[in-house]
Amino acid sequence: MSLLNRFLGNPQNSATIAKERLQVIIAHERNSQSSKADFLPALQRELISVISKYVQVNLDDITVSLEKHGNYEVLEVNIVLPESTVGR
Amino acid sequence: MSLLNRFLGNPQNSATIAKERLQVIIAHERNSQSSKADFLPALQRELISVISKYVQVNLDDITVSLEKHGNYEVLEVNIVLPESTVGR
């Protein structure tokens, strides 16, 4: 399809065309009475470990944020995948 | 952060407010030349396995969807958590 895209007006530059990304968002909706421990940071480490079994992940290419929005705790992990390592 | 909008601005009704939920969204942005195998279904099974180490998960309380949006493959897993089993 890459040649076709040249005709279909889908300009991609060489800096971005090769990148693939994986974005993982985990939202934990807690009810107001919840006093339970927050397990998202520990879960995050295991998730990255699991993901790295499927794709080669460089730690430098991972950005993580953990935010609270009302009743939600939201863990967001963004991973830029190296070329030719997906689906190994 | 557009995926985050799926969580926020999602009003709760009285029937659902007592439940805790865990929502996992994995978006794989593939480039146009990618012909690599799709690993999201396998990743999904492992993720649920990892999550079940932290919270008690009933398979009946899990809903999974896998959709394609342009260059994105989006895996969405919704888990309703039983009461008093989070953070065990």
Give me some keywords for this one.
88 residues, alpha+beta, 2 helices, elongated
Give a description of the structure.
Two copies of one chain form a homodimer. The first copy, chain A, has 88 residues and is an alpha+beta fold. Chain A has a single domain (19-81), classed as Cell Cycle, Chain A, CATH 3.30.1070. Chain A has helices spanning 2-7, 40-54; strands at 20-29, 62-69, 72-81. Chain A has a three-stranded antiparallel beta sheet with strand order 1-3-2, with helices on one face. In chain A, a hairpin with a 2-residue loop joins strand 2 (62-69) and strand 3. The model of chain A is unreliable at 1-16 (pLDDT under 50). At the A-B interface, strand 1, helix 2 and strand 3 of A face strand 1 and helix 1 of B. Strand 1 (20-29) of chain A pairs antiparallel with strand 1 of chain B, so a sheet runs across the interface.
